[in-house]
Amino acid sequence: MNQTNATEVRKFILLGLSSSSELQLVFFFLFLTVYLLTILGNGLIIITVTYDHHLRSAPMYFLLCNLSFQDLCYSTVTVPKMLSHLVTHHKTISFQGCMAQIFFFHFTGSTEIFILTIMAYDRYIAICRPLHYELIMSQRTCWVLAATSVLGGVIHSMTQMVLILHLPFCGPNELDNFYCDIPQVIKLACTNTFVVEILMVSNSGLVTLMCFVLLLISYTVLLVRIRNHLAEGKSKALSTCASHLMVVTLVFVPCVYIYARPFQIFPADKLVSILYTVITPMLNPLIYTLRNSEMKSAMKRICNYSM
């Protein structure tokens, strides 16, 4: 395939969630509400941690603030475009816009996965080595770990883009989804993509699956260790680990389903995509704040101060 054909596709058509105009209107108001709640919930966590000195200096809340920021960015990469397509007849995205959406989608998503992994490490140190916690999880270490997660996200996303940008696209140009993602885009390439798919699955799917398994093992170890703690500390540690485990499950299970298998289209794909691109970023702040007395107290203090 020559280079001319590779640049023939100038835009992609996103088929979206439904062809029914009535259903699209329902989806618009539903997902607009979810997106606003996502902004409100994650924004509130970021503001609370930033303005509360005690939370800001605690590694767990510093990482939680970073996670909320990534959730906010992650949702913003796809949801606004989806909302605009639900109320317009022009459901297209330029080739460059599609590639940019893929890059930032995988950048924010992989950064979030790395932060969740760091949060598991933070909990392990806090529960298993409490006397050395402040020394190991110093403020400088937290910043280095946060920067490393961002760097890891950039490397992961750039690797994806290097693979996909070398593919020729000469038609068709319809994507059966509400945003650009690799499994759908790669199927439109005018060449055999078997090797690229294997590399993509190795880069995204297997790495995600391995991280998920390691996190499950680490939280299992933590839950076993918690049994030896005193009642009050046990209850608090158990609540924290349960919150983390719920978020890890919500983030990792859909990603493993989408990326740790050959790129074939299944009926449940759109539903799973909605779960981890729209719903999960809204649920994360609810899970962390509703089960966390320190966060709720800090939010009340900030509300009382502002009033």
From TrEMBL:
PROSITE patterns: G_PROTEIN_RECEP_F1_1, G_PROTEIN_RECEP_F1_2. The gene is LOC100927892. Coiled coil: none annotated. Residues 41-288 form the G-protein coupled receptors family 1 profile domain. It is a multi-pass membrane protein. This is Olfactory receptor. Belongs to the G-protein coupled receptor 1 family. The keyword DNA-binding does not apply. The chain crosses the membrane at residues 25-49, 99-121, 142-169, 206-226, 238-259, 271-290. Keywords: Cell membrane, G-protein coupled receptor, Membrane, Olfaction, Receptor, Sensory transduction, Transducer, Transmembrane, Transmembrane helix. It is found in: Cell membrane; Membrane. The keyword Lyase does not apply.
